[in-house]
Amino acid sequence: xxxxxxxxxxxxxxxxxxxxxxxxxxxxxxxxxxxxxxxxxxxxxxxxxxxxxxxxxxxxxxxxxx
Length: 66
What we know:
0% strand; mainly alpha
């Protein structure tokens, strides 16, 4: 059963980051929505870091496969 407090935080954040992804979460079983939503936000954050021009190429992730 999902935590209502988590939904209060996760829902608005997902909605502000990607409305289309937020809407599609409704087709998933209720018990999976939080986990998939958090995984999506992690992927978005990782992509943002990878695309950042402030970090020189090759230094953003020391464990990246080259």
